[in-house]
Amino acid sequence: MPAPERTSTEQVVTEARRILEQRGADGLTMQAVASAVGVRAPSLYKRVAGRDDLLRLALEATALEVGDRVDRALAGAPADARGALGAVADATREYAAEAPVAFGLLFGPLPDAARPRTEVLASASAAVLALGRRLAGPDHELAAARTITAWMTGFIGMQHAGAFRLSGDVEEAWRFGVEALGAALEARRC
User: Fold this and answer.
1) pLDDT digits over 9-49, tens only?
2) What is the mean pLDDT of the chain?
3) 79: domain range?
4) Fewer beta carbons under 10 A from the terminal one: N or C of the chain?
5) What is the CATH number of the domain that holds 44?
6) What are phi and psi of 51, to 5 degrees?
7) Which three-class secondary structure state does DSSP give residue 87?
């Protein structure tokens, strides 16, 4: 008779994400996750190939969650493309404040084995691609989506790192950036 399953991949990923936020990337170990789900570390290898695979699964869940958040923001956004950009930017920033470690890793350097799969990223990015198309037109959809993502993650990363040390209102800078980005992308529309 086979031994009963004591955990699931979903539980493993949930605990990995919790540990990642609490202890940072260095604190995400097979032993820490095993302890959190109540099994011995070797038992985790029934669910994941190793630490990089565990990190990949956690970051894929993060990417999909960000994508869901963006989808919901767009569903309730103003009809105009610039208003939609503001809703997407704000939703992304709010998510990043809730899960700063995973969000930062999602857009940072990673070993290949820890990188989220392309199909997961494509699914999570669909709404931003559609927004890029609305703002800059179909010929510039991907470039616009990348520009939106790069600006948001750059601003958010600097804010989380405490890099805005000059005087001035960071919220005002955020709004200015969203408005300027929207105007610049619309100017590229074909």
Assistant:
1) 999 999 999 999 999 999 999 999 999 999 999 999 999 99
2) 94
3) 62-187
4) N
5) 1.10.10.60
6) -60, -45
7) helix
